[in-house]
Amino acid sequence: MDYADRPKQMNKLLKYVGANRPRYINTFQLLYTIGLAASSLFVFRFSNSVFELDATWLQDLTAIAFLALIGFVVFGVGARTLGKQHAESYVLASAGFISLVSRILNPFVKLFIILGNSVTPGKGYSEGPFASTAEIREMMDQISDEVIEASEKEMIHSVFELGATVAREVMVPRTEMVWIERTKTLRQALSLSLRSGYSRIPVIGEDIDDIVGVIYIKDVAKRIFEHSEAQQTEQVDTLMRTVTFSPDSKLADELLKDMC
After folding, report:
1. pTM assigned to the model
2. How is domain 168-259 classified at the CATH fold level?
């Protein structure tokens, strides 16, 4: 390969790695686990041979202390600090290696994920759980305000929080609900919207527990704009839309998908 073409090849490789992020994170996670297990064995044998401790509990305690120190300093603080300080250079240097290793270990990674999902309660994740929102939140906090404004960061964090929010937390309490009877005119509906500030208002039948639909004020405004006489002659139920009922225990992001 010509040296001049190397940046193009690396750019193509990085795009491929970025498009298959879970696969490579899973590979790194497996390598990390293998490295930690190998370190445990090495430290245990090293501490026994060097210190020649007779008591078994002293051997175990010494091995744990060395392993905790190495794991925290090398794998924890050292690796993460270098990765964040020199992200681009490390990504460029490791892209080819991790791509090659991933091809070799990917069958084992898939097998281990299947085994992990089989012994874990719940549905599980087909691509593994390692690409977590916590990591993305951490990266967002690391980005300077020159790149992303504080208000934009807050908005992105609220998106993650939405996944853990149930519908009852964002619902308007029944005592504060704004509603309109189905027999009211379009003019009354428009007036109520302007007073309350709501653009979507539940439509009731016989009483407040009889929700028969929902009126969108944009539909009312369009109808009045096209036919001004309709504001006095037409009722709300002529424009109301079908209402969707959902349990208050449903997650807010799932409810949002149903409403789209």
Report:
1. 0.44
2. CBS-domain (3.10.580)
